[in-house]
Amino acid sequence: MSILIGFFQNRVLFSAVLGWLLSQVAKMLVTLVFTRKLNFERLWGAGGMPSAHSSMVCALTVSMARFYGVNTPTFALCVMFAFVTMYDAMGVRRETGVHARLLNKYLNEIEISKADKDGDGIPDEEVDEIELKEYIGHTPLEVLGGVLLGILIGILIPE
Question: Is residue 13 part of a domain?
């Protein structure tokens, strides 16, 4: 029980976890609004609006600045960690999703053509669809949404 109490007393850690949690809930709600379907995978899945990674690192960084000051090595580490995390979300991880989308398209076309034995364009045997995860990274707008939510959380955590 003392671990749980310690967690809630660590305002910086609590702020970061709350940033992640609220972003994931927001993703589920945004998906519900746009698709009219409740998708619980959005509670833990990557990608989408707002970026949970960005929200988490910004809440961490802002609360670290508030409670311990901006002239500490730990704050500097948080800032650099935030920049790397957000850059990665918009760069490498986003490109991975683009590549997955293309691979899904072309690999499925190949599988369908292999299953078309008589050349009429209709598969003659069942084809298992290849489905790599496409929703991995973030657009700049999704990262900005996470940044703003994280900053707000970092500011609102009580002292």
Answer: yes
